[in-house]
């Protein structure tokens, strides 16, 4: 009799684990952050920064992955503006893999000389493909 109860408990635990894995793969149960193509990707900060040497200009900042799964092909994109708010162009940076619950310090090269402001593209400026989804 105790053997049947033990087997039943093991089966129930197995079912609970299976349900948990399925829910996590579908993106449920995780903390969400706003951010475009990946629900768990979030642009935390960004600013325009001039390199100390060479005069290159970058949009630098941090993107984080709030999900318990990795993202592939993560891209952060910005529209660039001059000091008068006129559009100048765009810039982007790319990361092939962003691990679960990790951050990425991006550096997007700015080619427009007069860029004074960078705004994330529509949808939060961050896209990526969730592993398994």
Let me know the average pLDDT.
Answer: 78
CATH homologous superfamily placement: Immunoglobulins
Q: How many domain modules? A: 1
**Main sheet: strands, sense, barrel:** 4 strands, antiparallel
Task: Report the CATH topology name.
Answer: Immunoglobulin-like
Number of alpha- plus pi-helical segments:
1
Description of the molecule:
This protein is an alpha+beta fold and 133 residues long. Helix content is 18%, strand content 44%. The chain has one domain: Immunoglobulins (Immunoglobulin-like, Sandwich), CATH 2.60.40. A hairpin with a 6-residue loop joins strand 1 and strand 2. It is elongated, with a radius of gyration of 21 Å.
Keywords summarizing the entry:
elongated, Immunoglobulin-like, 7 strands, single chain, three-stranded antiparallel β-sheet, alpha+beta
Write the layout of secondary structure elements.
Layout: H1 2-25, E1 41-50, E2 57-65, E3 71-81, E4 87-98, E5 103-110, E6 117-120, E7 126-130
Structure at a glance:
The chain is an alpha+beta fold. The protein contains 1 helix and 7 strands. The chain has a single domain (31-130), classed as Immunoglobulin-like.
């Amino acid at each position: 009799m105790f053997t049947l109860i033990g087997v039943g408990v093991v089966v129930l635990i197995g079912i609970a684990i299976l349900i948990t894995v399925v829910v996590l793969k579908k993106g449920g149960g995780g903390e969400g952050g706003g951010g475009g193509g990946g629900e768990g990707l979030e642009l935390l900060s960004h600013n325009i920064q001039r390199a100390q040497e060479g005069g290159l200009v970058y949009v630098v900042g941090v993107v984080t992955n709030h999900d318990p799964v990795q993202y592939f092909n993560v891209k952060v994109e910005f529209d660039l503006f001059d000091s008068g708010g006129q559009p100048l162009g765009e810039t982007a940076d790319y990361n092939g893999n962003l691990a679960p619950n990790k951050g990425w310090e991006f550096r997007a090269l700015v080619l427009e000389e007069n860029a004074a402001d960078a705004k994330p593209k529509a949808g939060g400026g961050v896209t990526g493909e969730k592993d398994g989804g």
